[in-house]
Specification:
The protein is built from 12 helices and 10 strands. It is α/β, with parallel strands linked by helices. The chain folds into 2 domains: 202 residues, 2-enoyl-CoA Hydratase, Chain A, domain 1; 45 residues, no CATH class. The strands form 2 sheets. The chain has a 6-stranded mixed beta sheet with strand order 1-2-3-5-7-10, sandwiched between helices. Strands 4-6-8-9 form a 4-stranded mixed beta sheet.
C-alpha cells in the first residue's frame, strides 16, 4: 500500500509503515494522518500481522505539524483555532488513539529528528528505538507559545519524570538519542546503519507474543499510574484469573515443561 504520504509494506508477520514526505521532513498534515490511519486499519484487518514498525523516509522521523498559513489566519471558512481544533480532533489525535488501540505491538524506529508532534508520535509506540544521529526536540513552548500535543504531555513525564519533562518542554533543548536512552525516553539507541535491522529484530520478537498481549500490557501499565498499590494488586489478580484460562497460557506451560519455545496463535 503506497499513497502520496505513507508507504505500508509487509515482511512476513511484520508491517512497516513509513511516513513518506521526506522533502518536508515528514511533517504532519491532515492528509498524512488520514493516510496513516488507513494504513493502520489495513494492518488491524490483516490477521497475519503480528507487529508494526513506524519509521520515516529520508533524514527525519517527523518534524511535527506542517505550519501552514491557515494556522495563523484560518482558511476563509474556519478561523485558525477552529481549523486546528478540527485537525486535532478528527485527524491527529485519532491517529495516536489508533496506535494505542492496535492489538499488536508497535515499534517506533526514529531515523532522524523527531520534533514537535513527531515526539508524541514516537512515544506512542510500545517500544521506541532511535538511530544514534537522531534527536528529540519539543519546539512548542519556546518557539511557538504552545503546549506539546498528540499525547506528548501524557507520555513524556511517564517516561522521563516530571522534572525532565518540564525542562525539555519549556527550554526546547535538543535531546540526542544516546541521552534519550540513558533517561529512559526510548528503549535503545543504535548505530544508524543498524536501525532497520534492530527494529526488525525487536518486531520479530514481539510477533511471537500471544495475541492481545500488547493491549493487556498497555492497559495494566496505564492502570498502575492511577491505582493505589492495593488497587493494582487487585487489577493484576483479576487479569491473571482471566488470562490463565487462555490457550496461550496452556501453550506456555507445556512449552516450559517440554523445554522448547512456545508457539502462540
Amino acid at each position: 500500500m503506497t499513497t502520496t504520504t505513507v508507504d505500508l509494506e509487509f515482511d512476513g508477520a511484520i508491517a512497516i509503515l513509513r511516513l513518506n514526505r521526506p522533502e518536508v521532513l515528514n511533517s504532519m498534515t491532515s492528509a498524512l494522518a488520514k493516510d496513516a490511519r488507513a494504513a493502520i486499519a489495513k494492518v488491524r484487518n490483516t490477521p497475519s500481522a503480528r507487529a508494526l514498525i513506524i519509521t520515516g523516509e529520508g533524514r527525519a522521523f517527523c518534524a511535527g505539524a506542517e505550519l501552514k498559513d491557515e494556522f495563523l489566519e484560518g482558511d476563509g471558512k474556519q478561523s485558525a483555532s477552529e481549523q486546528l481544533n478540527t485537525t486535532m480532533r478528527e485527524d491527529f489525535n485519532p491517529w495516536i488513539k489508533d496506535i494505542d488501540e492496535l492489538p499488536i505491538p508497535v515499534v517506533a524506529a526514529v531515523n532522524g529528528v523527531a520534533a514537535g508532534a513527531g515526539v508524541g508520535l514516537a512515544l506512542a509506540a510500545d517500544i521506541t528505538i532511535a538511530a544514534r544521529s537522531a534527536s528529540f526536540i519539543l519546539t512548542f513552548c519556546p518557539k511557538l507559545g504552545l503546549i506539546p500535543d498528540v499525547g506528548t504531555t501524557w507520555y513524556l513525564p511517564r517516561r522521563v519524570g516530571l522534572a525532565r519533562a518540564t525542562a525539555l518542554s519549556l527550554l526546547g533543548n535538543k535531546l540526542g538519542a544516546e541521552t534519550a536512552a540513558e533517561w529512559g525516553l526510548i528503549w535503545q539507541c543504535v548505530d544508524d546503519a543498524l536501525l532497520s535491522d534492530s527494529a526488525m529484530q525487536i518486531a520479530r520478537a514481539l510477533a511471537r507474543l500471544p495475541s492481545g498481549m500488547a493491549i493487556e500490557m498497555r492497559r495494566s501499565l496505564k492502570q498502575s499510574h492511577s491505582n493505589s498499590l492495593g488497587a493494582q494488586l487487585d487489577y493484576e489478580r483479576e487479569r491473571q484469573c482471566v488470562l490463565i484460562e487462555s490457550a496461550a497460557f496452556r501453550e506456555g506451560v507445556n512449552a516450559f515443561r517440554e523445554k522448547r519455545q512456545p508457539v502462540f496463535d
